[in-house]
Automatic annotation (TrEMBL):
Keywords: ATP-binding, Iron, Iron-sulfur, Metal-binding, Nucleotide-binding. It comes from Anaeroselena agilis. The keyword Transit peptide does not apply. The lineage of its organism: Bacteria, Bacillati, Bacillota, Negativicutes, Acetonemataceae. GO terms for molecular function: ATP binding. Residues 57-86, 87-115 form the 4Fe-4S ferredoxin-type domain. This is ATP-binding protein. Pfam families: CbiA, Fer4. SUPFAM superfamilies: 4Fe-4S ferredoxins, P-loop containing nucleoside triphosphate hydrolases.
Length: 281
């Protein structure tokens, strides 16, 4: 089963839930898709494993062949090319690597070039839940798009066992790339007005993608906003699969890179409910 863990904003406890689920399910694989700031490795401390560079296609220009006709800029749907005088400018951060400019260039002045965007790493955890396999990625600083790296990480997965995908925060393309192909999405939220607002955004994206979803309330304190989240979930027909109680002791241990076994029973209960709610594809 592939379970993705998402939330509308950072800091709600996605990684906490992902690591608790991993600790409660020996043999599972964690995929940390927060490639701009991966942090699962800090807790799992994987031993030395595989590492490979990921590249994307980007156009490369031969200025000697270019006559400045502007055809490439005309076909670029993403405005990544501009002509100034007779000179072509490429705005790398806008390029989607579609290859249209290569096909469109009459004198064949544009060719395909592989550009490194980051690395994908894989190894076995040595801490907190020894034996858990961790796959994570590290996006090169300044690289404009995380989605190709996330797709490459998911391609390295052996199609076996339970897979826990820790998604990047927000609801942008990288989150969509991370949740794609999930059997179930766990939406982690906090019982606060901001938490509920961002839960609504994330739930909207997951609904559009047609992925069954449930909610885990992190830092649950049984207060009025717990009730507000529960009311909202009831209204939307989204089940609450777990509540991780607010605990200062847990927060201290987490800050020291330890995952308290105190909530393993809650995590096992979430797995149990996932088995019933999940619409395995
Ligand atoms: S289509 Fe080719 S020749 Fe024309 S401006 Fe673009 S790169 Fe230059
Ligand atoms: S590869 Fe596609 S997106 Fe990139 S510059 Fe060429 S036409 Fe534009």
């Amino acid at each position: 089963m592939i379970v993705s863990i998402a939330s509308g904003k950072g800091g709600t406890g996605k990684t906490t839930v992902a690591l608790l689920l991993a600790a409660a399910r020996p043999g599972a694989t964690v995929v940390d898709c927060d490639v701009e700031e991966p942090n699962c490795h800090l807790f799992l401390q994987p031993g030395r494993g595989e590492e490979r560079q990921v590249t994307v296609m980007r156009p490369s220009l031969n200025t000697e062949l270019c006559d400045g006709c502007g055809r490439c800029a005309e076909v670029c749907l993403f405005n990544a090319l501009a002509i100034t005088g007779k000179k072509v400018l490429l705005f790398d951060e806008l390029c989607h690597g579609c290859g249209g400019c290569i096909l469109a260039c009459p004198p064949k002045a544009v060719s395909e070039a592989a550009k490194p965007i980051g690395v994908v790493r894989a190894g076995a955890a040595t801490r907190n839940s020894a034996g858990t396999k961790l796959i994570d990625g590290l996006l090169d600083v300044g690289s404009p798009t995380a989605s190709p790296l996330i797709k490459a990480m998911k391609e390295t997965l052996a199609a076996q066992g339970d897979i826990i995908v820790d998604c990047p925060p927000g609801t942008a393309c990288s989150m969509v790339a991370a949740v794609a192909d999930s059997d179930f999405c766990l939406l982690v939220t906090e019982p606060t007005p901001f938490g509920l607002h961002d839960l609504g955004l994330a739930a909207g994206v997951i609904k559009l993608l047609g992925i069954p979803a449930g909610v885990v309330i992190n830092k649950s304190d049984g207060g009025a906003w717990d009730d507000a989240v529960a009311d909202w979930c009831a209204q939307e027909g989204i089940p609450i699969l777990g509540r991780i109680p607010h605990s200062e002791a847990f927060a201290h241990e987490y800050a020291e890179g330890r995952i308290s076994p105190e909530y393993l029973a809650d995590a096992r209960a979430i797995w149990g409910k996932l088995g019933r709610e999940g619409d395995c594809r």
